[in-house]
Amino acid sequence: MIIQILINGVLLGGIYGLIGLGFSLVWGVTNLINLAHGSLVILGAYATFWIFHFLHIDPFISIPLVMVALFIVGYLMQRYIFNLAIKADVFLTLIMTFGMDVLLAQLMIVMWSADWRSIATTYQGKSFIIGQYLFPYTRVLGFVAALILTILTAIFLNRTKTGQSIRAVALDMMAARLMGVNPGKTYAITFGIGTALAGAAGSLISVIQSFNPAVGGGITLRAFVVAILGGLGSVEGAFLGGIILGIIETFSAFYLGESFKNVVTFTLFVIILVTRPRGLLGKKYYG
Amino acid sequence: MKGTKILLAALLALGIVGQSVAKENVIKLGAAISMTGKLAREGKYVKDGYEFWTWYVNEKLGGIKIGGKTYKLQLVFYDDESNANTAAKLVEKLITEHGIKFILGPYGSSATFATSAITEKYGAIMVEANGASDKIFTRGFKNLFAVLNVASQYLQGTIDMLANLDPSIKKVAIVYEDKLFAKSVAIGAKKHAEAKGWKVVTFAGYPGGTSDISSLLLKVKAKKPDVVLGSGHYQDGVLLVRQMKELRINVKAIGETVAPTLIDFVKNLGKDAEGVFGAAQWAASLKFSDPYIGSTQNFVKMFEQKYGYKPDYHVAESAAAVEVYQRAIEKAQSLDPQKVRDAIASLDFESFYGPIAFDELGRPAKKGMVVVQVQNGNQVVVWPEKVAQAKPIYPKPKWK
Fold first, then answer.
1. A139–B246 CB contact, under 8 Å
2. Where is B173: in which H helix or E strand?
């Protein structure tokens, strides 16, 4: 039984990790706490839903399409809106992103109504068995997709020129500028990638649960917890933070009851903030 | 032009929609209805239900006769903007400014809770059709009547049906969304199941908005229940079925509240929805007779002709609330609130909506919930036996 709970926790945690990754990347590099992250995840879920609805493309296969679309949304959003406040006080950026969250959620309600949506794949609800343990297909696929995207993001940041310029800006903006990196553009690209990752997380969410525009708030909250648990500085940290959150949630739900899982999560959240303010794997930014 | 628009908007905002029927004897019925805001969709059904029965009484039956005089019904609406406090203020306005003593309920438990306190205070009557929380009926109000079953009665039909189908059922697990309505449903189901001699092996809630209840379901699985009952909203119903399948929890029956009665449930779950039971206040396929409109079928037909869509349970219960006033006023042969109130309390007849009679708290005394089951992608009524369209499929086939 304990192993089954652990499996459920890890599988759930992979998706939490992906939710947290985009949030943590944007926060770590551009110092923007993006409260609209949850709504962007839901936007990704809707994109996946409509692609499935009209083109009948499987949600896992449409992830790259959704990511490209969301990258454009994120890039433009940062370039023409959030960039205006990038050097402003943190409260101003919080208000801006909060406003964006409300705007996005309301726009989605107006366009697509507040009805609950979910994607019915042929393999939903099915599980395979290894030993005596159950592995639901959608959740395993979700975990694998999250893992692959996390690895790709790490490779991108470490091996490509754009990725290195993102890390350079995160480490020392002045020096990066002197080396010919354009911080405005880099910020926009970073935000675009964060949004694309949010979109991918939305694709995964659309297959495992029902969603409507109002559920974005809870997702932002989880992204925040993941980013803090894992630490802001690294891709591995975000993924690990997600796994930890998933395991904590499933275990506390099993042993203490569903109603206690948030209590446990946030208690741990506070303990980590007090004892290891940079998170478990935290270091200075993404450098 | 702009001025006219503003004036028009202002008039709309005031929300006076009822038309005055001049120089005729009229009986005014007042209501605060959610025409805008988050409950606007349900509010429209409520309004259509109220208006349909009023129209039917006035145009098809020629009004209500008291002594030698004929009275027409007239509805006076205000828009409560989906806000319970606003609804309470508007009902106070309807009573004090318009002098209306016969009030129809708003949409939703919170608004019904708030407005019924106002009607009770002013000695007006409320017949409500859209507030199902048990809390509404714990205050000992004398002038409050509901045509719909309250939350604690929601799963009683399902439990009765299962106990009837299979006397060997012993263990039931009840899981619920930890919110007012869903929890009242679960508590009511627990009491009823225990009264049937079943053992409640799991009784567990989870916070609203939870997207993963696998840990909870693992506990359920370990207890090996015969029946799983789930209480919550649409997304909870879908989640329960999906995760039960993922964890291969096979039981003889799954019973839920509203989710399986909604068409999206079947669309989203496909084959996995097969055999799941749901509880509904009313279904268009029921076959009741009615002293005024003949039958449930005739109600459905006439409503569809007039409004262009098939009435759902919101429409039916709302229309039934107006019918309660009609029947009671005819019976009392008076417009005195006390006499009408006593007449309502003593009503006992079968309507297109189901049997209408009230217990001492104003809740339905004879009407039960209808049990619906998903069979071959259709939602068919399987209980009560008298109105069933098909026999229930039992036990539920195992997950593949």
1. yes
2. strand B171-177
